[in-house]
Amino acid sequence: MEALKNLQKNIVKSQIWKSIFRVGIPTDNRKRALAMLGNVVLHLHPIKVKKSGLRMSYTWCMGGTAFFLFLVETITGILLMFYYRPTVEYAYFDMIDLREAAAFGIMRELHRWGAHAMVISVWLHMFRVFMTGSYKPPREFNWNVGVILLVLTLLLSFTGYLLPWDQLAIWAITVGSNMARATPLLGAEGPGAALLQLGGTKLIHVGSDARFGLIAGRTIGNGTLIRFYVLHCVAIPFVAACLIAVHFWRVRKDGGISGPV
Amino acid sequence: MEAIKSLINFLSYPQWSFTLSLVLFWLAMRSKLLWTKAGGWVLLALITLFFGLAMLDPNFFVVVAKPDNVPIVMMVYLVGFFWWFAMHKAHENDRRIADGEPTFEKSESEDRIFTWPDLVFSEFICMVLLTVGMVLWSILLKAPLEEPANTSVAPNPSKAPWYFLGLQEMLVYFDPWMAGVVLPGLIIVGLMAIPYIDTNKKGNGYYTLKERRTEIWLFMFGFLILWCELIVIGTFLRGPNWNFFGPFEYWDVNKVEPLVNVDLSELIWIQILGVGLPSNFLLREIFGIVFTGFYFLVLPVILIKNKFVNRFYQDMGPTRYYVGMTLFLTMMLMPIKMYLRWFLNLKYFVHIQEFFLNL
Fold first, then answer.
1. Per the CB < 8 Å rule, is B122 touching A140?
2. To probe the interface with A, which of B107, B115, B127, B199 has the most A CB atoms within 10 Å?
3. Prediction pTM value
4. pLDDT, tens digit (0-9, with 9 covering 90-100), for B320-340
5. Are A140 and B196 inside 8 Å of each other by CB?
6. What is the CATH number of domain A56-253?
7. Which chain B residues are closer than 8 Å to A206 by Cβ?
8. Which pLDDT value is given to residue B221?
9. DSSP characters over B264-305
């Protein structure tokens, strides 16, 4: 026991440790404050928080859970990208390899179940925010950022659904993307699309409508796969990460975790 | 047991289960007992007992135990729990307010606690627990992988991802441009509009039911009934050809459901007036157009006369009122259309196939 304590002391006092963690283990209030200020991750938090906002019975920890799952999805997603090739020839067989040949073969499981869990936790986070009236002034704008993040979460999950390139994937995306056909004005079978004509030539047809733009073709194929892959791995995560930053920043600027005003 | 199962199968059919859930929702929201700790335990026991017993049934088991459906069972439990929990906290605070005490949150919100160590460590513990949970879940349940994609063999039923099954269920009652584009768009717009429409200053930053009863009823109706319940129906009770199956029914591909849906125009011109359909589409659809116009343009004005609604009109002012009322009426279009379908076989109010404009 004594030896362990000595070891800890030696580590904490070493130049390496001190170069990373300036403050050391906080033992008084000044150091508790400095610990939060001196760390790029921790400084997202204020130095002090309302006791009521600290309680899990108030926050349900659902926003935090959603963010944590976003990180889990990012990390497992990056690992999956090492193996997965988004082309019709390889995609499905890379899935089988991920299951059969890759070491620590639970990355796909972590990614898939994490995605389901993230969708649910985002809904529950919204439910909590509604039930505590936390969208009310001054937090209206942040509620809106949250709604967009909710939509992005669903889109992330939707675009990821296609990537395994199995029957479930392709037909779920077929059902989902068929809706785009019916977009008013912009879908080939949508109300009003027939009105958009130029000298008797239809502007909106199956080769130019909203569904065509979404799935990059008349049917789901290689074009769709690469499109959804880029959306799933780069485009939507990029937008989501930016908005998460705004979301967190606004939580602080709007007065921290909500509480009675 | 078989008799109970067939009764549950019968009651599960949307016209009955939806009605039942509306009644139960109404009773639950007015109940006090349900939101006490004892009520919560009874509720948990009942749901678990149902799932436990039902899992013995092979038809139920095969649908619920699909790996991708496990999260939806989880969702039922989590949404149920947090519904109970939020109401429990709200009733506790309402009692405090009635007794002239500060709300639970108020009693603690003046207290400031250092983030280090309290918040940082609870976050850390949450992350560890979540990691353990996710890893266990991933080891125990393999991610499903079906046959390779084949554009020429459509599985029956073909389902959208589970979180969109509420929207797919709407397709039964609405055309794709409504169910797939306009209504989802309006859900997003409606959610974003909430903070600007809601002028009630009370209930900001603490749980309460009494101080914002209407808001909470509306939100819960949308979230619990129209979103979550329709997902559960779409996942567990919609089988081949999107036909309805009770929880203990075998998903028979050959089940035939006669569809004799009629449009409002046919209902009135042919069945009631006994004359044929007029050839001019505007004249043909006049009743539907008038109904829709009345519903969205006149009804909000008439409703202002209502004492209950008038209070909101006074608080919100005309702009907020009309925007909010339009969103509310759009939301209510869903249950209205469901009931008209079930009991009158109504397909469209307005059916102008000339422009693909069907409502």
1. no
2. B115
3. 0.94
4. 999 999 999 999 999 999 999
5. yes
6. 1.20.810.10
7. none
8. 96
9. HHHIIIIIIS-S---SSHHHHTHHHHHHHHIIIIIHHHHHTT
